[in-house]
Design goal:
The protein has helices spanning 43-50, 103-107, 157-177, 192-203, 216-224, 239-249, 265-272, 298-303, 315-327, 347-356; strands at residues 3-8, 17-22, 32-40, 65-72, 90-93, 96-97, 118-119, 139-142, 148-150, 184-188, 208-213, 229-232, 255-260, 275-283, 306-309, 338-342, 361-364. By secondary structure, it is of the alpha/beta class. The structure holds zinc ion (ZN) (2 copies).
Length: 369
């Protein structure tokens, strides 16, 4: 029986183990088998590895993946946009699938809140067939209802993986918040989500974007992606100093919208003070429960703030991301973010590199030796 290799999280905070699993003999109607070309390592993978999110092990991590079609199940002949699919083609897909029929999917049009939603690389055990339900593997099985996108030849795999789930997360969050033309925006955080939020804010019409974060090489990347100002939290060390810097850069008013891409509760308290009166605040970075914070709700009433939350993304955001990456490779060079390549056997090093925050983006290339 033909098998494929996968790197498996069997125990939290322990080394991933290289395992062989049998490839599916039958592809269900509507499903597909793909050979993994590149899998991105997301910051969320580090949190999953540490056991900070409620998942059932063993799991093949990896929810940012590009692959080539090996086999298609009956009835699957077109991608989400209606383009014809065939064996050998390069595709990507949304990591999560929703049911399409529940209260949130069908009535409220918020499929990211579907209670039946499950994500590849997070929500599937890999000790049961079809096993290959995460990116850190030679193969990936795409279950029926997966929203698949054929990739245009002129879009490098690196661009898509470099942008990763951060870009589609930012597109969704900024869509929910709404950015006005020439708005002055603050992005808290210069990690992948912060850089993506900067790019989306700029292209959504923002006049000026101020990025707050560290270390210096991430702020340099923010500059490369068009940040008008950067505030280094290592140099401007206190919240009141940073709030003062934002005021200074916005004629004393504060930002029209502040986008939190940090994941630290204290950033929210600080960021709301960076909003102008009547401004908007987006909490985008809290994928993990980092605990509560002492906070005075009076600030929301007094400043007449609009506060937004956003979880993950919908298929249309991935479609938009593909078009966006294809149209703006020089302005927003996401492909350049892929800085470290690892083989499947080096998945632990890849994860450690992402955890260290010293690399822009590490990826697994199963064919890499
Ligand atoms: Zn992710
Ligand atoms: Zn649903």
């Amino acid at each position: 029986m033909p098998t494929g290799k996968a790197c498996v999280l069997e125990q939290f905070k322990a080394s991933l183990q290289l395992r062989d699993y049998p490839l599916p003999v039958m592809i269900e109607p509507g499903a597909a088998l793909v050979r993994t070309e590149m899998a991105g390592i997301c910051g969320t993978d580090v949190h999953l590895w540490k056991g900070e999110l409620p998942i059932t092990l063993p799991v093949i991590l990896g929810h940012e993946t590009v692959g080539r079609i090996v086999a298609l199940g009956d009835g699957l002949d077109r991608d989400w946009t209606g383009q014809r699919l065939s064996v050998g083609e390069r595709v990507t897909w949304n990591s999560a699938t929703s049911c399409g029929q529940c209260f949130y999917c069908a009535e409220k049009d918020q499929p990211t809140r579907c209670p039946h939603r499950r994500a590849y690389g997070i929500g599937y055990r890999c000790d049961q067939a079809p096993h290959f339900l995460g990116g850190y593997a030679e193969f990936h099985y795409l279950r029926p209802r997966t929203t698949i996108f054929k990739l245009p030849d002129d879009l490098p795999t690196e661009a898509l993986i470099g942008a990763g789930c951060a870009l589609i997360t930012a597109i969704h969050g900024i869509e929910r918040t709404g950015i006005g033309w020439r708005d002055r925006i603050v992005v808290q955080g210069a990690g992948p989500v912060g850089i993506a939020a900067l790019a989306v804010a700029k292209s959504a019409g923002a006049g000026e974007v101020i990025v707050i974060g560290a270390p210096r090489h991430r702020l340099a990347l923010a500059k490369r992606f068009g940040a008008d100002h950067v505030i280094d939290i290592e140099a401007v060390g206190t919240p009141s100093e940073r709030i003062g810097s934002v005021r200074q850069l916005t004629d004393g008013y504060g930002a029209d919208a502040v986008l939190e891409c940090v994941g630290a509760p204290s950033a929210v308290v600080e960021g709301m003070e960076m909003c102008r009166e009547g401004g908007k605040y987006l909490v985008l970075g809290h994928y993990c429960d980092a605990g509560p914070v002492l906070w005075n709700p009076h600030v929301v009433t007094r400043k007449q703030l609009q506060v937004f939350g956003s979880w993950s993304s919908e298929p249309r955001h991935l479609k938009a991301a593909i078009e966006f990456l294809r149209a703006t490779p020089n302005k927003f060079p996401f492909a350049e973010m892929v800085s470290h390549r690892f083989s499947l056997a080096q998945a632990n090093e890849a994860l450690a590199a992402t955890a260290s925050w010293n690399v822009a983006k590490s990826v697994i290339v199963p064919a890499h030796t």
